[in-house]
Amino acid sequence: MIQRSLLRHVQAIKHLPHSYASRTTPIIQSATQRLPAFSSPQRQSSQRYYSEAAEPATKSSSEPPSTSSASSDAKEQEDPIKKELESKNREIIDLKDRYLRSVADFRNLQERTKRDIQSARDFAIQRFATDLIESIDNLDRALGTVPPSKLAPQNSDPDTPPESKEYNKDLANLYDGLKMTETILMGTLKKHGMERFDPSEGEGEIFNPNLHEATFQTKVDGKEDGKVFMTQQKGFLLNGRVLRAAKVGVVKNS
Fold first, then answer.
1. Do strands 235-238 and 194-197 pair parallel, antiparallel, or not at all (unpaired)?
2. Over the range 218-233, which residues count as b (16 or more CB within 10 Å of their CB) and which as e?
3. E strand or H helix at 170, and its extent?
4. How does pLDDT run across 200-229, given as a tens digit for each residue?
């Protein structure tokens, strides 16, 4: 207000005559010297301009924290999604592993079940066959007790009466009947997987501890060491499994 009043007085003095203006100017100058220094309106406007121009700078300086906070908020929003995705991936991997293990266990169970069923079929008559071995042995011993000389006529002279030629006919008929019974029985058992083996037949087999049971060893001329030359008791197999090992004598020359 003071500045405005002074300006008005200055303007009014300018319009006054020169003599009167010269008288009043010292008074105005002294008054202006006593007043505190105030900036002119132009200077104030410039100051206001600079102050207003500084505001955008402050705003721009404040913008980076807002962007950083926005990015941090975005990260915080993205993190739960990533965590959930990772957990789902781990769950999928775990479920896939369990599925593959279940499939493998099921296939192994199928294979074991098939083997068990086949084994049950193959060896269902194992007890029956084991009990039947003694009867087969007795039948074999009965056939072995009859010497071949008793099965043929003792006198082959054509002048001999027929009664003497038929002396062993009944024994031969009995022997033939027992032999046929044994053949049919062994054929029937073979259909069900049961077989009888004699290691001493032919040139003799090499001793096999899985199939043979050595009861003694002795020297035999013309035989190699480790060969079977005598069978005391024949062996039996059921579908490749040993029901009873054959009791044999083994050659040992060295």
1. antiparallel
2. eebeebeebbbbbbeb
3. helix 169-191
4. 888 889 999 999 999 999 998 888 889 999
